[in-house]
């Protein structure tokens, strides 16, 4: 977010993100705080003329590893700064997951093994992605017939659990639909739960719709 409604709108939210190469990062203007732009200190990217219009957006694909610091030129001295850290991550062994979670800050390539259990739990609103904007663990592996329970922490505003393009399943990187999408209500109350039983093998990719742009995404491998 450009011009987040804190500090008089003089902030990027989150101020620092970590992504993998070839991630497309988008900055969205909130309309708070007047004229803004996004300019890399090393000249790598530049959104151009300043803009105060809510709904304006600018994106850049980071194709090289490195640390990219940037500012909003009109308010650089007031501390309106940010950074994008681009680094390689270990492969999970599932290309679709690596691509989907490429911009998810709390994903390091590890898929948490929950196979052989009747139920597995994922926290909603865990620490990550610049705030309480993460699923934890972000990627899990379960057996068919396992029920996954998403449990809300009550932090990070309202969240939901929603499949990408319905319920997307991936096998060896090829995505298809299994006909049983994840689709919870938007909830903020601590202790709320949403459950789904996975009956088919594959990889289910999902997100929190309000915070997808921050990297709040997850995946379930069913085997």
In angstroms, what separates the terminal alpha carbons?
38 Å
- CATH homolog superfamily of the largest domain: Cupredoxins -  blue copper proteins
Helicity level, as a percent range?
under 10%
CATH topology of the largest domain: Immunoglobulin-like
* Overall tally of domains: 2
Count of alpha and pi helical runs: 1
Number of strands: 16
Query: How much is the radius of gyration in Å?
Result: 18 Å
Low-confidence blocks of residues: 166-179
Please state how the strands of the largest beta sheet are arranged side by side: 7-10-16-15-12-13
What is the mean pLDDT? 88
Structural class designation: mainly beta
Query: Which word captures the global form?
Result: globular
CATH class division of the largest domain: Mainly Beta
Topology:
Elements: E1 16-19, E2 23-28, E3 39-40, E4 57-62, E5 66-71, E6 81-86, H1 95-100, E7 112-113, E8 119-128, E9 131-136, E10 139-142, E11 147-152, E12 162-171, E13 174-177, E14 193-197, E15 202-207, E16 217-222
Parallel strand pairs: 1-6, 7-10, 8-11, 10-16
Antiparallel strand pairs: 2-4, 3-5, 5-6, 8-9, 11-14, 12-13, 12-15, 15-16
